[in-house]
Every structure is written in structure tokens, then in C-alpha cells.
Amino acid sequence: MSEKATAPEPARLPLAGLRVVELGHYIAAPFATRLLADLGAEVIKVEPPEGDPVRGWGSAVDGHAVWFSVHGRNKLSVTLNLKSEADKAKLRRLLARSDALVENFRPGQLERYGLGPADLHAVNPRLVIARISGYGQDGPYRDKPAFGAIGEAMGGLRHLTANPGQAELPPPRCGVSISDDLAGMYAAMALVAACWQVKGDPAAKGRVVDVDLVSSVFSLMEGMLPEYGLFGWVRQPQGAAIKTAAPTNTYPCADGKWLCIAGNSDLIFRRLMAAIGKPDMAAEPRFATNALRCENVAELDTMIAAWTRTLPAAEAEAILEKAEVPCSRLYDIRDCAEDPHFRARGLVMQVQDPLIGPVLHPAAPFRFDGVSPRDMVRWTGPAAGAHNEQVFGMLAKEEPKG
């Protein structure tokens, strides 16, 4: 529960009344259900008796993983052994009283448990089942193991994160499990769409949603596929620049930090040149349009970097902001946590976690009138099995939905 120890009325959150069961581990499925839970859904996380393996990741306080405070927030946690027939029967009864299931086992694992879509639709014909996997539920790669890094590699993203001229170094990952997070977001969106369809039609049957890590990353490749199909072009790594806009790059500053500057419209370019003491450059014919600036971008980047190297990043940023040139220092997590805009918007909030004490949480990335960001954090990630009695006691009182 947050510091205020108050939770919003269920009707004020858009997914209030939607019950989602999570058979998730590690990142993708739990991230999907975290979004759904932040939006008000009743999420019941089913864990093995020893808990989600991610509870052992990263830093910990008194044996409780710090990340799980966020990763498991707003969820009810129950424990079941899916190798036990009695526990599988409990899960079937729970799913008979639920709207949706999110899982990210390898394809075929649910079926091996006797919990495949056909089995589950037999107990709840209107159940929406969102399945997240590395490569999808069919295709020649369906049975290959995969983690987030593989989604980045095969989906086309990791090729683009290289720095030109550094062929001896491997292209770096972006620093977070982006393909898991993307797949989780797509799964959450598709699940809500399928639930909307089922809710709107009394005769509708439950749907099976198939989301995978590779296609989630591949979906971000902008115009690269049609460019390849039409012209045979293969986009190459651009480093910090954008090939189609100039000047847009990240420049070194006097204090060793970096400043991202996006000065690519004609008007903003003129303001940028005036701010760095080069107003005459804006009138040069070779810089008259964005297309021409792209042709001469090396000269522009050298000129801008020569200016940023003379100033600390924060000072250069302040000068450009005064000139209304889009820019930002490259923030680390300390910058995010201490930034006045993050704080004013409630993006960073301190909540009280019963397991680890006061802890900073990121706000949900969406806003609704009448609900504050703090209201959306109803409680922090609980201990494994903390809600066994509450959830399984409910089964005897509720009728199946199917």
C-alpha cells in the first residue's frame, strides 16, 4: 500500500472487475499483468511453491528481491504445484471464475500439464488466454528456448545498436529486457481487446492470443521491411545519429557527460546556430533544408560538438532550453529520481513495502482523470503465497463464469 494507505474506488480504474490469472515467470508475462493490475484488474499471480525465479534476481533486503516490489505490485500471490493433480484442479476452478489467463511457458508446456486451451475452454468457454513465448506457438522455431536477448538479436534491434566504426565490439543491448517488456505490452493490449469482444457478445467464445518476443521487436523496425522489399536496402547502424534528420545527435560535454540535441527543423536549426554563436551558419545554402543538412551532417556535428565540449552538460542544456531547442542530458537513474519534473508528475514516488520498508516506485505510465499516480499503487509485491487463503477461499463462494 502507498504512503497514504488509501486505494482508489474500483470503479475509478478502467479494468476494475476484470479478473486475470498469471502463470508467469521472469519478465514478459509478469510485466503484462503488472500493467493490467495498475489499470485496476484483479491479477492473481500463480507461483510454484518456491516462488517466481525472478524473486532471486538483483539486490535484496532481508531476502526479498527489491525489484519484485514493483514487478509484483497490485497482484495477489498464490502458490500451486502444477505437477500435483489436486493443485491443477484448484487452478481449473480458479480459471472457471476468471476472465483471462496470461502465461509465458515454452509452447506445449500448458498442454503437457493438461491445461491447454481446449482443456481450459472446457471449464470456461469465454476465457481469454494470452500466450507469450520466444518464437510463437507455431513455426519451425517454436520449440527453441529464448530469452529477451534473443528477441533483440533475431528481431533486428541488436544489429542497429552497434556504433559505426567499432566492428570489433559486439552491438550492446539497450540495458533492460526490452523484448520481454514489448511482448508484455502487446499481450496486455491484445488481451484487453479480446476481453472487450467477449464482454460485448454474450455468445462469444474465449480467444487465444499468441505473442512472441521476436515479432514484438520486429514490429518496431519502422520502414525497414518495405525499403528492403522495394529497393534491397538494409539499414545499417547509425550510432547516436538519425540518418534522415540533422542535426540530431548526442554530443560530448566538458564534464564527461553527454547532451542529446534534436535541431532538425529549419526553425529550430536557426535557433540552435544562434545559441552556439554560429548564426551565420543558418544562412549557408548547404544547410538550408533538412535534406541538405543530412548531406553535410559531419560538418554540423563537428561544429556543435566543439561548442558542447566547452561547457558542462547542465549548462549547455540550460542555454539550449532558453533558446527552445529540444535537448536533454543523458539521464541515469539518479537524475530521474531527483528531477523536479519526475517528482511533480508523480513519476517517482516513495511507498511503504511491508517486506523491505520504504522504497521508490515508478508510477504507471498512464493517467486517468480523478486517479492520482499514487492511487494506482494499491500494494507492493507480496510474499509468495500471501493470498492463498483469500483466493482459494473465494472459489467455494463464486459461480463459474462459463
What does this 3D model show about the protein?
This protein has 402 residues and is α/β, with parallel strands linked by helices. It has two domains: 268 residues, Crotonobetainyl-coa:carnitine coa-transferase, domain 1 (Rossmann fold, 3-Layer(aba) Sandwich); 72 residues, formyl-coa transferase, domain 3 (2-Layer Sandwich), CATH 3.30.1540.10. It is built from 17 helices and 13 strands. The strands form four sheets. The protein has a six-stranded parallel beta sheet, with helices on both faces. It has a three-stranded antiparallel beta sheet with strand order 9-10-11, with helices on one face. Strands 3-4 form a two-stranded antiparallel sheet. A hairpin with a 2-residue loop joins strand 3 and strand 4. Helix 1 crosses helix 8. The longest helix has 23 residues. The chain is elongated and about 80 Å long. The N terminus is likely disordered.
Topology:
Blueprint (H helix, E strand, L loop, with lengths): L18 E5 L4 H11 L3 E6 L12 E2 L2 E2 L2 H4 L3 E5 L5 H11 L4 E4 L5 H4 L4 H7 L4 E6 L14 H8 L1 H4 L17 H23 L7 E5 H6 L5 H8 L16 E5 L5 E5 L3 H10 L14 H6 L1 H12 L4 H10 L4 E3 L3 H6 L1 H5 L3 E6 L3 E6 L25 H8 L7
Parallel strand pairs: 1-2, 1-6, 2-5, 6-7, 7-8
Antiparallel strand pairs: 3-4, 9-10, 10-11, 12-13
Helix pairs in contact: 1-8
